[in-house]
Amino acid sequence: MGMKVYGPAASTNVARVLVCLEEVDAEYELVHVDMPSGEHKNPEHLVRNPFGQVPAFQDGELILTESRAIAKYVLRKGGSQLLRECNLSESAVVNVWLEVEAAHFNSAMSPIIFQCFVVPMVMGGTPDMKIVEENLNKLKKALEVYEARLSKFKYLVGDFFSLADLSHFPTAYYLLGGPHASVIDAYPHVKAWIADIMARPSVKKVTELMKMPSV
Ligand SMILES: N[C@@H](CCC(=O)N[C@@H](CS)C(=O)NCC(=O)O)C(=O)O
């Protein structure tokens, strides 16, 4: 039995796992979970992810949740160098920036994506601009730190691409495709870095999947 990812590709946390599978050219099956109808809260899905969230991941007997943990498993299994595990300090810094991505970039982008995409397109509502503004301010604070870092190094950890960079792609994809894309114009190094990430073949492949509503 091959690896299985449960969730819609359009979910940022699912896309983070898919891009790692593509990086290592793994064979996998993407099992769609219909979130608008609440399939992620069904008992079968709760067995795989007790928080009723996506993604869930299965490799034989092993069931995993948490996209960044799954991403690491997939990259290790596929023998990828994106974790820099041959070098203790480099791998430590990969983990630092992966945490930064979750705590500063994703945590600001996630409510923005919810308000600007999910509320109008899935729930038929109107975005709460107070939430959007608060999180744009939070994002800008993070981007100042990123800009300083990326003025010194080509990528977040150093002059090599790592999971820390790749992990930003799903939320960056929605930032670029949403109404607040111009936010990054004030941060030229960040803008070039995001363009570089988006040009990666694995990322291009997953962004195509993200555009397909039933995948
Ligand atoms: N920390 C988790 C977050 C997972 C998560 O928030 N998934 C969202 C979709 S992007 C979800 O399932 N939301 C539905 C819910 O929480 O009920 C991860 O990285 O996998």
TrEMBL record:
Q: Which positions fall inside the GST N-terminal domain?
A: 1-82
Per the UniProt entry, what are the Gene Ontology biological process annotations, in alphabetical order?
glutathione metabolic process; response to herbicide
Q: Which reaction does it catalyse?
A: RX + glutathione = an S-substituted glutathione + a halide anion + H(+)
SUPFAM superfamilies per UniProt: GST C-terminal domain-like, Thioredoxin-like
Q: Name one GO molecular function term.
A: glutathione binding
Q: Which PROSITE patterns does the annotation name? A: GST_CTER, GST_NTER
Transferase as a keyword?
Answer: yes
Record-annotated GST C-terminal domain positions: 87-214
Give the keywords, sorted: Transferase
Its EC number is: 2.5.1.18
Recorded GO CC terms: cytoplasm
CDD domains to which the protein is assigned, alphabetical: GST_C_Phi, GST_N_Phi
**Similarity comment:** Belongs to the GST superfamily. Phi family.
Q: Which PANTHER family match?
A: GLUTATHIONE S-TRANSFERASE RHO, GLUTATHIONE TRANSFERASE
Protein name per the record: glutathione transferase
